[in-house]
Specification:
heterodimer; A: 380 residues; alpha+beta; Cytochrome-c3 Hydrogenase, chain B; three-stranded antiparallel β-sheet; B: 320 residues; mainly alpha; 0% strand; globular
Chain lengths: 380, 320
């Protein structure tokens, strides 16, 4: 009898957060062990969105693959296909025209803005719920994102999975007046972003909920292989656009924002500053857009004719979530022998079991939201 | 009033409240829509979706009445009824014009707050009877919250009572003939604001809607409820919100007092303004965490309201 009482007093409540849960950002399951409201143990379970993209790649020709990679991380499609085409170009030794590189940068940065806007909106939902101020922020952010989607639609005919990148260049050239449309959108976004910055950073509830929550120490971030804003918020100035430039990033002038503490608030500030940098990169690249062809090889008619030499290559890009790498092994045929995607979200959510214990249940949602995982990217 | 008269008045009041509450959901949806640069309901009943609440009610009525197997059947079905009954009971004591009040008793204010705090028992029953871990956590939160916020709620409610020298609603209204209590320097404003905050916490509204907390607890105590039972919780929540809005307008804004227009119109106007302020807060704030909420309560609101009550008492006894 006595033992039972003790067991009840010190018992843990195991609770399944997910896979169907409003704030796990997709299909993700957190097995939480609670003592009162405090998390004592957490086991993340992934794999609910596994689509076998890597295996699928072994059965398709190279030119068929970029659109499939765009479905990987469904918030920043071009970053994914960009990593893949960069790897193929590296392996096959294909030169990309300068204009194509600029166009790749423009679309990638516009989609980074869109992705970060989605993040900011859903972070609001995590903090304030879908039936309150959070949803207001969410709808504002989606309204802004809509402008970018419109731009993409006029440029490529598709709002989201633009299919912009192809091996050897890009598929679509800009139309007359594209720069005018973009500049107008950028000015609009800049105004709005400053507005949200002011709105959130003067909001005591937002500060209370994010400051000192989910601190990721620098060593831990390095150990689990975190990258992107999560790593930079912990104070490591590592950005592939700066450290190992690809496409045309070496030609532009931009800062790499860094946090110092590594809490949720730092991750928020880093992302917000990054959005401002993205605005500046798009302005620079559109201002100096060189003339010339947009691809160095003919668009595909028979994909099986395109073969890569035997060998392997790794190319990484800075996606909105971090280092997105594609490792490609070729046996000389028209299909890849093996593809491995190094997805940033996968490494980033590896932080969760290290930092979650000791926080309250509400913080679990904040921390997960601040890591910005995309489960299409985690499970591939 | 004879017994028959009371019953008929009560029935009229009940119908009116349920009608008003139904349309308050429409007001909220339109208001939040404008706030979020949306249109809100539009298509059901043009213009501006004025039939939307009725369509919603019909939908909820036509849904299957589910009682999950592993629940405590009796308590599970009792909880929504409890919440609605307790929310509606409070209206009996509220004067809607100076002379029109269903039950006029000297301790009206005390009765009202006593019944208001009974609502949470329904929430707790719901969370316990659902046999669901999320609901259980939510019920525990609701209980902790109500115990904490009842203190500043009552302390700030007492200020108008002290200023008026009575717990009777009519006396409190008549005492505001010269000026409204919200205009009473410092004391009135502090008690008005703290009362609104505590009432938000008591009524489970953002930023204090921790027991509903859909981002972590999915839907909290009403996670297992659907159809009409869910609608009862909704009705209860809005009825309570309406009662609180009326209470604020009576205690702090002079209630039915005002020039030119009749008392009923004035109280309706003031109630609507208070209600919109509550909505404005809801749709622009994020949610607090449980520990932060407790901190706000015990370290800020309780000392503040206690001191405020003391000042009000001193003021009244010295100026007499």
């Amino acid at each position: 009898m006595e033992e039972r009482v003790i067991e009840r007093e010190f018992g843990e409540l195991a609770i399944n957060m997910g896979p169907q849960h409003p704030s796990t950002h997709g299909v993700f399951r957190l097995e939480l062990h609670l003592r009162g409201e405090t998390v004592v143990k957490v086991t993340p379970h992934i794999g609910y969105l596994h689509r076998g993209v890597e295996k699928l790649s072994e059965t398709l020709e190279y030119d068929m693959l970029p659109p499939i990679y765009e479905r990987d991380d469904y918030l920043s499609p071009t970053a994914n296909s960009l990593a893949f085409v960069l790897a193929v170009e590296k392996l096959a030794g294909i030169e990309v025209p300068r204009r194509a590189n600029y166009l790749r940068v423009i679309t990638a940065e516009l989609q980074r803005l869109a992705s970060h806007l989605v993040w900011l909106g859903t972070f609001g939902l995590d903090l304030g719920g879908s039936l309150g101020g959070g949803s207001t922020l969410f709808l504002y952010c989606f309204r802004e994102r809509e402008r970018i989607m419109d731009l993409m639609e006029t440029l490529t005919g598709t709002r989201f999975h633009t299919n912009m990148n192809q091996i050897g260049g890009v598929r679509y050239d800009v139309y007359d007046g594209f720069d005018r449309d973009v500049f107008k959108t950028l000015d609009y976004l800049e105004k709005r972003i400053s507005e949200y910055k002011e709105m959130l950073e003067n909001n005591p509830i937002f500060l209370e909920r994010t400051k000192d929550v989910g601190i990721v120490p620098q060593e831990l971030a390095k150990e689990v292989g975190a990258s992107g804003p999560v790593l930079r918020a912990s104070g490591v100035a590592y950005d592939i656009r700066k450290n190992k430039p690809y496409s045309a990033y070496q030609e532009f002038n931009f800062q790499v924002p860094v946090g110092n503490k590594g809490d949720a608030y730092d991750r928020y500030t880093v992302r917000l500053k990054e959005m401002k940098e993205s605005l500046s990169i798009v302005r620079q690249s559109l201002g100096g857009l060189p003339e010339g062809p947009i691809h160095s090889r003919k668009p595909v008619k028979t994909p099986s004719l395109f073969k890569t030499p035997k060998g392997e290559a790794y190319a990484a890009v800075e996606s909105p979530r971090g280092e997105l790498g594609v490792f490609l092994v070729s046996d000389g045929s028209s299909k890849p022998y093996r593809v491995k995607v190094r997805s940033p979200s996968f490494s980033n959510i590896a932080i969760i079991p290290h930092i979650l214990p000791g926080h309250l249940v509400a913080d679990a949602v904040t921390i997960l939201g601040s890591l910005d995982p995309v489960f299409g990217d985690v499970d591939r | 009033m004879t017994f028959a008269e009371s019953v008929s008045h009560g029935a009229i009041l009940l119908g009116a409240i349920i009608g008003v509450v139904t349309y308050l959901t429409w007001v909220e949806r339109k208001f939040s829509g404008r706030l979020q640069s949306r249109i809100g309901p539009y298509l059901v009943g043009r213009p501006h979706g004025w039939l939307q609440p009725i369509a919603d009610a019909l939908k909820l009525l036509s849904k299957e009445d589910i009682t999950p197997t592993k629940t405590d059947r009796f308590l599970f079905n009792l909880a929504p009824i409890w919440v609605v009954v307790m929310s509606l009971l409070g209206f009996a004591f509220l004067p809607l014009t100076i002379n029109w009040v269903l039950v006029n008793i000297d301790l009206g204010l005390l009765y009202f707050s006593a019944i208001g705090s009974l609502i949470v028992i329904g929430v707790f029953i719901a969370g316990w009877a659902s046999n669901n871990k999320y609901a259980l956590l939510s019920a525990l939160r609701a209980a902790a919250q109500i115990v904490a916020y009842e203190v500043p709620l009552l302390l700030s409610l007492l200020v108008p009572a002290v200023l008026a020298g009575s717990l009777n609603f009519q006396d409190i209204i008549l005492a505001q003939e010269k000026y409204w209590f919200i205009l009473f320097p410092v004391v009135g404003q502090i008690s008005g604001i703290t009362f609104l905050l505590a009432a938000l916490a008591e009524g489970n509204r953002i930023p204090f809607d921790l027991s509903e907390a859909e981002s972590e607890l999915v839907a909290g105590f009403n996670i297992e409820y659907s159809g009409m039972k869910f609608a009862y919780f909704y009705l209860g929540e809005y009825a309570h919100l309406l009662a609180v809005s009326i209470l604020v307008s009576i205690l702090f804004l002079g209630g039915p007092l005002g020039p030119l227009l009749s008392g009923g119109v004035w109280i309706a106007l003031k109630t609507l303004i208070v209600f919109l302020i509550v909505l404005w807060i809801r749709w622009s704030f994020l949610r607090l965490r449980i520990d932060q909420m407790m901190m706000l309560n015990w370290k800020v609101l309780v000392p503040l309201t206690l001191g405020n009550l003391l000042v009000a008492g001193l003021w009244v006894s010295l100026s007499r």
